Amino acid sequence: MAPIGSVQSCFSTRNGTPRQPLVVPLARATVVLNPARVAAEALEGLASYSHCWILYVFHLNTDLDKMWKDPARSKLKAKVRVPRLKGGKMGVLATRTPHRPNPIGLSVAKVEAVDGHAILLSGVDLVDGTPVLDIKPYLPYSDSVEGATIPNWLEVDGALAVESIHFSEHFISSLSNCWAHVQKQALYASADEFQDLIKEVLSWDIRSLSQRLRPHQVTIESKADDCGSKADKDCRNKEDYQAADSCSIVVYHLHLEGIDVSYKIDENSNIIVDNAALLPSAANQNRCSYLTWRDKLNTL
């Protein structure tokens, strides 16, 4: 199969991308179809639906090489660790893990607007650059199953919810500086709306199980001067983290809309959002933005 288009998402990396669709209502993305494969007329009528299904490829799946290059030796795991089970395992086909026999994803999203070859969606769980295979309208009379049930382990309230989220004064000022550089290419109308997105994303503990046990791609910082005078260490692997002093804390990073958002989370799941910094790629993005969709949104 060949993709018919790709996703321009507010989520720059897998880390921070919601585990399920619609749990972060402000999560936005534009699906841009390839005009060489799909005419704009193919989207005629889609704007009349409130939601649609997106079929896509988990293109950042770390198992892709072994699955496709030598499937006979891929040894795809039959069971995977489930976040809600705190490391407990479940059959891969009884979960929505991206590490599947075939790396195909299925997500529902809200249709905000349609314009030419592009669709603005919200409530997405799609990472930037995702190849799209197909789009289908959501039909409540057939897609919503009355009386459907789920396993008990999925019914645990607040299993991944955090206790509180606070924004430091430094974050507010640093976000203001960053926003001046990214606002013309962002899918959000203002820095305040973007801050609301951050709060929605971090309302769920976005860390994987391995990240909670062995933080990676994070920063180790000293709590106080007496913890040592070394510069902050970039913690890239298990050994680095184990070598960190007991008086050190972990700073996690969330990449959204070309901005690196730094935050800390304590043992009681309280989050402090500390800083915002421009990512190197922020100035090189050529994509649909809020300004692209503003007039369409105002007419809805």
Automatic annotation (TrEMBL):
Keyword tRNA processing: no
InterPro entries in the cross-refs: TrmO-like_N, YaeB-like, YaeB-like_sf, YaeB_N_sf
Pfam families with a match to the protein in the record: TrmO_N (PF01980)
UniProt KW keywords: S-adenosyl-L-methionine
Stretches assigned to the TsaA-like domain: 1-147
Top-level lineage group: Eukaryota
NCBIfam families: tRNA_TsaA
Family of the protein in this entry: Belongs to the tRNA methyltransferase O family.
Protein name: TsaA-like domain-containing protein
Annotated organism of origin: Triticum urartu
